[in-house]
Amino acid sequence: MDLGLRDKVAVITGGSIGIGLAVAKGFAAEGAHVVIAARDADRLTAAREEILAAHAVQVVAVDCDVATALGCDRLLAATEEAFGGADILLNNAGTGSNETILDAPDDKWQFYWDLHVMAAVRLARGLVPSMKRRGGGVILNNASICAAQPLWYEPIYNVTKAALIMASKTMATEFIPHNIRVNAINPGFVLTPDWIKTATQLTAETGGDWKGYIDNLARENAPIGRFASPEEIADFFVFLCSDRASYSVGSTYFVDGGMLKTI
Ligand code: NDP
């Protein structure tokens, strides 16, 4: 299936590793140029080189913190300079949390609000004008199953990811008259280096069987009985950003191996 993404420009936050990198590679495989953003410059450079080695596309790497207005501006300026704007924006940068509502201070709430919600708002505000000039575009927000089915240990993550879904829905209504489609994806368990690190830490004092921990977690929570690989969910992201998904507007799609317990 030709997805019609050749020579499109896709901006991917959190594009240096995990889901973001897998999606960036997916875009590149379809002939789209990519702008990848993350804070760690070395990891970003390695990701850029990996994509360039495999695909004949342009790859721009921007080290910036998208949880700040300054960081978003930096990403927008680099995108403008390299490509004069973008056709696709994937708001993917994010991370889990760990707290209770009674103990978490205001600044922790603010940090996650800025990372999961304001980054999407600021980058949309910055890129929509160029999408309009190009005749349309796509914004995809990577939320989480936790936006709908919370995990008890991360209330701030649950709340800010749920807010991202509503931001997505309202953006969709506002932008579709300009042929800009906005959707969200709620992944379930995806085996990224971040999860391996967490599982390694959690099993450090009991033998270090991080893989056993991951397998048990999947068996207990997801009917499919395993984590997804970043690559196997990346295809879904790439498809939703293509014209093949032209009637998908303002929706939230679960890709979770059956983990969601409601219909
Ligand atoms: P990873 O930790 O593997 O990657 C996160 C990426 O985001 C990295 O590139 C990281 O780079 C970047 N990033 C984090 N904070 C910032 C910031 N402030 N500014 C710029 N870049 C930043 O995460 P995953 O691939 O696992 O997750 C990606 C997204 O998917 C997240 O939003 C996550 O909530 C969501 N998700 C993940 C699931 C999973 O099971 N893995 C399940 C459901 C949703 P750097 O640290 O260098 O900035």
From TrEMBL:
It comes from the Bacteria. InterPro entries: NAD(P)-bd_dom_sf (IPR036291), SDR_fam (IPR002347). SUPFAM superfamilies: NAD(P)-binding Rossmann-fold domains. This is NAD(P)-dependent dehydrogenase (Short-subunit alcohol dehydrogenase family). The lineage of its organism: Bacteria, Pseudomonadati, Pseudomonadota, Alphaproteobacteria, Hyphomicrobiales. Pfam families: adh_short_C2. Belongs to the short-chain dehydrogenases/reductases (SDR) family.
